[in-house]
Amino acid sequence: MATLLLRLLFLLGWPAMLLMARAAADASFPVNVWPKPTSMSWAEPHAAVPVSPSLRIFAPSGNPYLASAAERYAKLLLTERYRPVVRPAVNVTAGGALARLTLAVSDLAAPLQHGVDESYTLEVHPTGGAATLTAATAWGAMRGLETFSQLAWRAGGGGRGGGMLLVAAGVRVEDMPLYPHRGLMLDTGRTYFPVADILRTIDTMAANKMNVFHWHITDSQSFPIELPSEPQLAEKGAYGEDMRYTVKDVKHIVEFAMSRGVRVVPEIDSPGHTASWAGAYPEAVSCAGKFWLPGGDWNDRLAAEPGTGQLNPLSPKTYEVITNVVNDLTTLFPDGFYHAGADEITPGCWHADPTIQADVDSGATLSGLLERYVSAVHPLVVSRNRTAVYWEDVLLDAAVNVSAAAIPPATTILQTWNNGPNNTKLIVQAGYRAIVSSASFYYLDCGHGDFLGNDSTYDDPNSDFDTKGGSWCGPYKTWQRVYDYDIAYGLTAEEARLVIGGEVAMWTEQVDATVLDGRVWPRASAMAEALWSGNRDAAGRKRYAEATDRLTDWRNRMVGRGVRAEPIQPLWCRTRPGMCNAVQ
Hints:
Elements: H1 2-11, H2 16-26, E1 39-58, H3 64-78, E2 91-92, E3 98-107, E4 120-124, E5 130-137, H4 138-150, E6 152-155, E7 164-175, E8 181-187, H5 195-207, E9 212-218, H6 231-237, H7 247-258, E10 263-270, E11 285-286, E12 310-311, H8 316-332, E13 337-341, H9 347-351, H10 354-361, H11 366-383, E14 387-391, H12 393-396, E15 412-416, H13 420-429, E16 433-436, H14 439-442, H15 479-484, H16 493-496, E17 499-506, H17 516-520, H18 523-532, H19 544-560, H20 571-574
Parallel strand pairs: 1-2, 1-3, 3-5, 8-9, 8-17, 9-10, 10-13, 13-14, 14-15, 15-16, 16-17
Antiparallel strand pairs: 1-7, 4-5, 4-7, 6-7, 11-12
Helix pairs in contact: 3-4, 5-7, 8-11
């Protein structure tokens, strides 16, 4: 309810109550929190107190995830390494060391699900000693624990872990998210990521108050998850025996995420992007193993990129296998959302299948074939008590799409990735809830050229001059481009209510574990703040200029926590506020 109230205030044009909250949040502090809270005050003159080495966080009994979070944050705080580049101008109050943080939660049993209340209030006593954190749910309490951890820093000498550990005193934070869905999509179908890298990513998401890990598990390139009912898919479709996610791995990832208030939404993309299924079930996959771009003509392509294969909607085996897949996935993953994919159906692939072409010659259409498939899978997903999520193509693709009757808005969410705000508007105008992942703003893989080999384009030294540099979605999306985007741009207040949030997307044609952190962070942090408390100040102005130094500080803190986030400016800029701006 608190989240809904904030969104309604936001959508109704920045009225007085929201402006008051924003004004409190807009104040500049010696130490800041990312994402910026909805409302934060720090009594003047700004003061800090030492943190007692025996600090304890007291959580109410009854929720094991909150109990583990309290223990984890107590350890995190006591081992804090962060030293601000610019020394905070605060008065240190001696003799009042903070030794106790007490949590109070109204509803410990509230499940982690879409729309759960994540609001909290945090107070640190002006003279130290104690702090209190109140929240409606355990998940809101976890957000408050993260805020509390970011109010601490190291001062004085003694090396990285030495010196005095301080925490801001006289602070009050009242906070809640603007959007209930704040996610990151990671593609493990093109590149396998060890479990440890996935866990680190989820942990960093929680630190940024992001709450949805959209796991794009499989794609044409590989099928890396072991499913009890369909073991052949991973045996024949994974890159190798050591590049599979076992049932034990999945349970560990889901539980790890739960303990951080992060939902795991699984995606098994189909009927497109399924070349990796062909090893196990060649009779169910059309055009598998063929060269993706015969004759070099895009109009004759068999896939959007190398790796050809789409499930054949005419094959009985297709429905046998997808039924087992959906049943297994909805057993392994408890979340209420199931992402069914359905993007980039390539007409050439189905036309290359003799059985499908014969059906088309008899009067069938490719859209009809897709609708046949979706009309079988969608009720299956819903029968498992899930909301089905699809990429926008299933409805908006110009060549192959389904009717709205096949995907009722009541049980369907569409994720948009093309044409920026235009497609978002088309989706909500059709009555669907929308997740925004517009490639022009939220695709983190863009701007690194293309991965195709044997490309004669580069024979011409001017071929990619003043272009996207070989990247279909170039240029590179800077943190400011991510931060500045309004996902409800151009929508009426009524339409905007159907936008449940957004996700940055990390497609992995050119990404593996060695570069993952730097590609994702801190650009994903930029979206995290925009969707948590907005990207505007109390006057309605974009606040990216003010956010720059805060994001640098947050990036430095993340690095201290073991995340290899890339820098956004030279260190020189942080020590000379305003000198690196484009406009003085």
